[in-house]
Amino acid sequence: MGLFSPGFMGRRREPVPGLPPGQHLVTDFPVLSIGPTPRVTPEEWRFSITSESGLMTTWTWDEFQALPQEDVTVDIHCVTSWSKFGTGWRGVSLDTLLDGVDTQAGFAMARSYGGYTTNVPLDELRGGKAWVAHQFDGSPLAPEHGGPARLLVPALYFWKSAKWLRSIELSTRNDPGFWEQNGYHMHGDPWREERYW
Ligand SMILES: Nc1nc2c(c(=O)[nH]1)N[C@H]1C(S)=C(S)[C@@H](COP(=O)(O)O)O[C@H]1N2
Ligand SMILES: [Mo]
């Protein structure tokens, strides 16, 4: 005690560019699921967006596949502190899906097959920042990682990226989703360490 200055023991590491505070890099792809993996075939899969006025737009798998597809490479950050750089996904931008949805809502609730929910400010789903992804690394998204399709919001902690996505409900109210009801942050920006509230 007192022999070394706080920085001397190397505890303050050189920041890794692109790595948010309190995170460490992994090269594998951990699976984090709160319950069993729902099995949804593309034939029975439906995805819908409901506006705050109750108007619903629904896509079948074929309709969803016929939409413009985007390939994105992004870094992902789990609140349990692992980050993975350069993950490659294929999916449909939320800008495409929200095109034609008439809304003044500020908030979105993502709902999954299996019952998981998570709330995201609608701003975080727009502007080329979010996708409904159905491929990872050039292959159909594995069931344990959220296949047939999952939400991908890489700018927020990964719990916001709902696996087995079934619907997005737009709302003027910011209701908490599953983890948010249990103390996780309503926003979840990894650069501001918005882990819990
Ligand atoms: N439906 C659903 N989506 C979910 C989860 C979940 O348990 N159920 N876990 C979240 C958490 S905490 C993380 S870190 C990521 C993990 O995704 P992965 O298993 O593909 O790594 O999914 C998120 N989406
Ligand atoms: Mo997570």
Topology record:
Elements: E1 24-25, E2 46-50, E3 56-60, H1 61-65, E4 70-77, E5 82-93, H2 94-98, E6 107-112, E7 117-121, E8 131-136, E9 139-140, E10 150-152, E11 165-171, H3 178-181
Parallel strand pairs: 1-5, 2-11
Antiparallel strand pairs: 2-3, 4-5, 5-8, 6-7, 6-11, 8-9, 8-10
The chain binds ligand MTE and molybdenum atom.
Mean pLDDT: 94
Coarse morphology? globular
Number of helices: 3
- Main beta sheet, described? 6 strands, mixed
Give the termini distance in whole angstroms.
33 Å
Q: What is the number of domains?
A: 1
The CATH homologous superfamily: Oxidoreductase, molybdopterin-binding domain
Describe this structure in words.
The chain is mainly beta. It has a single domain, classed as Sulfite Oxidase, Chain A, domain 2, CATH 3.90.420. The protein contains 3 helices and 11 strands. Strands 1, 4, 5, 8, 9 and 10 form a 6-stranded mixed sheet that branches. The protein has a 5-stranded mixed sheet with strand order 3-2-11-6-7. β6 and β7 form a beta hairpin. The chain is globular and about 50 Å long.
